[in-house]
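Message: Study each token:
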Amino acid sequence: MVYVVLFLFGLVFAVKATDNFDDFTKLLTPYVAAISAMLAAVIAYINVARQTKLSLKVEQLKADLTKDVELVKTSLAAESIAFSELSRAMNAHYFSVAKVEEGQFNATISQACDDAMAAVEYQLMRLSDDCRLAFRTFWQELHVAEQKFAMAASNDERVAYWQTRKKRVNQLQKEFEDAFRAQQSAR
């Protein structure tokens, strides 16, 4: 719009400045060429400025995306490590209690496994609420089983109690694993 006004202003000035129409036509061609060149230069400048601005935005978005991807990778790695440590402690504790079926339950070893679970409990903060609940309920079930074993008069009583709780303990371990998989797939 500004260029049209300038062109008309120049055209009026050219007509007034020349007394002869031939002089006007001689001036019109270079004038139109100059205006066209200026217009092309301005358009090119606007395009380059816009391209530069968009390129900077794209680079910033790429940098932010790379940073986010690295954070997700780090988070996933931390979650996987937490899951591995917690699962290892759960398995060790489970098998120390399950030894009752073979008549080889050792309260000292089972207590050491219980302590190992307590030592890795801090890893729960990296996992979902469902993982935490399953882990703590699993741990509680094994803790209660150990207490029942200590009060039992014979190994047959221990085995009988374990048989009633074994399925629930296995279910809790599966819930822990399923909750972790759900947490991973949610990302």
User: Anything to note?
Assistant: The chain has five helices and no strands.
